[in-house]
């Protein structure tokens, strides 16, 4: 039953998004519990909710611990079979819940995501999730419908439901017992890539993730942090190294050394393109990775104790998405060599 779902919207100074997008969530989610978890907003978000939506539940988090801690804290207080994590800058559509709910009834499915299109251009896939997420052999994320900064026009080319490596945190339906079984999000990530890390850890205990393309939402994207922000660059580069250190099962030193080299090239390209603040962000990411390395190695040790079934790597692309994009000129997910995806 759809009533088994709790929709949880994490908010920080997002009154304008709540004004714009909360009406669609209410309209198209009849009978579903809707909760706003607030990360100590300093705008009048809470006053707006109390005046206009007094029946919506509010959870006040202790501080602004980012996406990871904010959701962990809020979800620890919510008794529901399924959590639907929803960004405040998303417009949902009619019938959006049913396809995802049907998929998570499968015993081996931990969670799923809808098709995510751009709110500003509803013919384009949106960066954060598109039609399902994957990782390449160097653990760079990409999606059906998005490779790096290139998003495709949605022509229905990815309308089949299928296994994916990771589901977007912008709109993710997940079994609560599975979320808590792996300890939720890693709060050291603060924000960005924490959902990929969590999906990977969940896959290690035998579950899968899927996409439900017949469920459609429209995402503004960059609502809390702009896509071109140096802070976003910092978090993505640092957290990618965190994720690899924790979850990679091969010889870690070799993999990290290679990723650091690739990051260095990226830093130089930022500089050549006239974006020195992004170069500095990469350097800071590496500095803070080393500072947290002992802690990440402790987490790696704990994760290695888990049973590693075959589906740990299902959905991984064993080719290089960098090579495909910048040396082979591949611009679309559909142009990739599908024999290089783990099944």
Work out the number of β strands. 13
Structural class: alpha/beta
State the helicity in percent bands: 25-40%
* Whole-number mean pLDDT: 94
CATH fold naming of the largest domain: Spore Coat Polysaccharide Biosynthesis Protein SpsA, Chain A
CATH class of the largest domain: Alpha Beta
The end-to-end span amounts to: 31 Å
- Low-confidence region ranges: none
Major β-sheet, in short?
Answer: 9 strands, mixed
Tell me the strand percentage band. 15-25%
Reported CATH architecture of the largest domain: Alpha-Beta Complex
Kindly report the name of the CATH homologous superfamily of the largest domain: Spore Coat Polysaccharide Biosynthesis Protein SpsA, Chain A
Radius of gyration: 19 Å
The global form is globular
Supply the number of structural domains. Answer: 2
Number of helices: 10
Instruction: Return the string of H and E elements.
Output: EHEHEHEEHEEEEEEEHHEHHHH
Question: How would you describe this protein?
Answer:
This protein is α/β, with parallel strands linked by helices and 343 residues long. The chain has two domains: 2-219, Alpha-Beta Complex (Spore Coat Polysaccharide Biosynthesis Protein SpsA, Chain A), CATH 3.90.550; 226-306. Helices cover 37% and strands 19% of the residues. The strands form three sheets. Strands 1, 2, 3, 4, 5, 6, 11, 12 and 13 form a nine-stranded mixed sheet that branches. Strands 7-8 form a two-stranded antiparallel sheet. Helix 2 links the parallel strand 2 (33-38) and strand 3 (57-60). The longest helix has 28 residues, at 276-303. It starts with a strand and ends in a 17-residue tail after the last helix. The model has no long low-confidence stretch (mean pLDDT 94).
